[in-house]
Design a protein that fits this description.
heterodimer, A: mainly alpha, 2 helices, disordered N terminus, B: Cytochrome C Oxidase, Chain A, two-stranded antiparallel sheet, disordered C terminus
Chain lengths: 62, 808
Amino acid sequence: MFKRIIYDDWTSIVPQISFWLTFGVFLAIVVRAIFMRRSKVEHLESLPLKDDESFNSKPTKK
Amino acid sequence: MNTNHNTKTIVYDDDSVRKFMIASITWGIVAMTAGVLIAFQLNYWQMNGKILEIITFGWLKNEGIEFLTFGRLRPLHTNAAIFAFVGNMMFAGIYYSTQRLCRVRMASDLLSKINFWGWQFIILCAAISLPAGFTRGKEYAELIWPINIMVAVIWLIFGANFFWTLGKRNEKSIYVGLWFYIATIVTVTMLYVVNHLSIPTSFTHSYPIFGGVQDALVQWWYGHNAVAFFLTTPMLGIMYYFVPKAANRPVYSYRLSIIHFWSLVFIYIWAGPHHLLNTALPEWLQSLGMVFSLMLWAPSWAGMLNGLLTLRGAWDRLLTDPVLKFFAAAVTFYGMATFEGPLLSIKAVNALSHYTDWTVGHVHSATLGWNGFLAAGMFYWLAPRLWNTKLYSNALANAHFWLGMVGILLYVASMWVAGITQGLMLSATTEGGTLLQYPNFLDTLQAIRPVMLFRAIGGGLYLAGFGLLAFNIWKTARSGNAVNGTVEVAIDEDSHETAGDKRFYAFLNPPVLYALLILFFVLVTIFGDGAVFLFGIIMTIFFCIAAIAHFEVSKAAWSEWYTKLLDHGFAFSVLTILAAAIGGAIQIIPTVTVQRADNIEGRIQIPYTPLELAGRDLYVSEGCYNCHSQMIRTLVPEVMRYGDYSHLGESIYNFPHQWGSKRTGPDLAREGGLRSDDWHYWHMLNPRDVSPGSTMPNYPWLFEKETKVSQLPKKIRIMRMLGVPYPIDLSEEEIQAQVDEQAKEIVARLAEKGAFVEPEKEIVALIAYLQKLGSYRETGEPIEASEPTKAVEPTEAVEPSNEVATAE
């Protein structure tokens, strides 16, 4: 009997809790992303594009 | 604060990148060749070894070679594709981009070398052990325990090298690509360790600590998230670095990439149970799996659109630049696969698709289209830079693209047709739904054989395209010189001195402390009774109000917290693992603590006799689970075909579970007693003698090799440790006596039917196991009172599969 009560509660409640938990996380991240400073965003998105690299003709150790 | 800037020349370690890239291409060819071979095996059983006799005009005489069966080579194919091809490609991409994004050389050349050579050694061990039949019997987790330990060690070395590099970085901010790498490293560690917890019985064999439903849940939590965190998150990190590089423009929306990352990491981990829909898995877990899979649509498409729109303004270059062409196609396949995945997770769709080729097609559209094309684009972009030259041939790269594209489309379309056709045929009924329209499983297999052949041809085309890549990269490398990238970097010496303080601040700040306190008192409320429960509620409310009040007073400081967190690799990693771990914990902990044999009501499995246990280990070793499930789903057509649906307790003592994920042959959950011993004897010797049209391999070596009875006492001792109710005082002599007695009974029954074999041979143990499948007793009923399953007399010696089942 005890086991069945636990199962029945989980079946109905858990997906709901999970959804609201996920929705909460999602909302928090959206808010943080939207309010991120423009200068910070521009700096971060430019990181892969730095093009100041040259090449050694031979592989060199550190 | 004064800062002191000096410049320093950094020489990147591109030698490791080159080595990983070459290894990825080499192992990719091995993985794809194995894939094409096993695809042909599904059409022509002779490809399981007999073909060698044919092409050598009888010189290599055999009825089948044990090292070449589908059951043994399919794990080799999947492991090689995932860990060898994509794994090495992932390392190449991570080593290259991490150094550039951190503007520092990898922290330790020694660790990089150990990472490379250790990983190749692991792959070599896998390539030997899997065809030899050494397996744990769990999909994508087949490698035996000594190799598991090596994987864990090498992975930790890779992680240490990565985080050390991150700690030494000369760029303060952590780019989103690195976030995805962090998520990969921490989450794969967690998944791999939990799913590989085993107790060794010998150097080459172990039993997992989870069994039955627990094992199924843990396995697919791992299996699904191996896709998520080994085949997706590192690829997304690579996408966020290499696509902007190739397009020479920043990512379409950095803000969207943040939402993409956190949503994906948080949601993905919950979706594992969608591999077990309509099974004996508790309903609430199935619901969770489906709901979270559908929610995955949003972050996945956010990432896909972000990747594609990064190419805005560069679309014209797609005509001429093979790199962009591969990237655009790869991201498109990511979108297609992540649309199809949630679709297949809807229970009603899954009822049709699961156990069919539709799932196989879905997996391959992601692996070949998303991973494979991203790898190709990255390799074509990297090769000229790593060897300081031009790509040998754009024309060959374009030919590769179209061969690969046609190959994938042929493959995936064939699998859609095959899966839907077979799924519909298996559930088709007649006479007002009272009889199956196709009671013989083999009828459904014959119907899809032509399209399965197209699948093999599609795979062959993809392999041919990849061969062009190997040739192109080889010629490119030959035309240039291996070089390492160098860069002048401004060193902010003061920033290193204060890094420790900042890292500390990332944890000890009001938002984190309030969150931890509230979480703690919520748990007190949930698990406490009486006064403790009341105390938990009061304290939860108190800290919620205190947090709101504190936030109102110091808004500015709080809003800085998240921005600062993004600059702290360690704090960020802790947050990532928390986001990823919560889903698994909520699903696995209740299942492991509640779904135990002690709590089962109704049917419970009867433990195997020693001989049956030996037979089961053979079944696992031969990889039978690759084609046969042991799970009758709660669907009417399945019950009509195979018998009563599988109850949770009926596989509770199975270490590992064998529920399976694909039915190239019929389900075997209630195989015991369905057919006679001699039917199985002839079937294993040559399946076509009793099941005309079958594509199953012959297993002649089972009639020659002897069952390893000497290992049984230890195995049974470990089974007892895992909770299987074997008698505590079972001596080695008693085990041997039980084996002898049961084997002689089977041999005698076989002899009556004209099938002769010695009792020590492996086939006898396997028949004992197959005849035990589906045996159970009702809880409360003593084990001794349970009727052991009896073998039935066959109606005819040659009886097609499932006609007996249907008649019942």
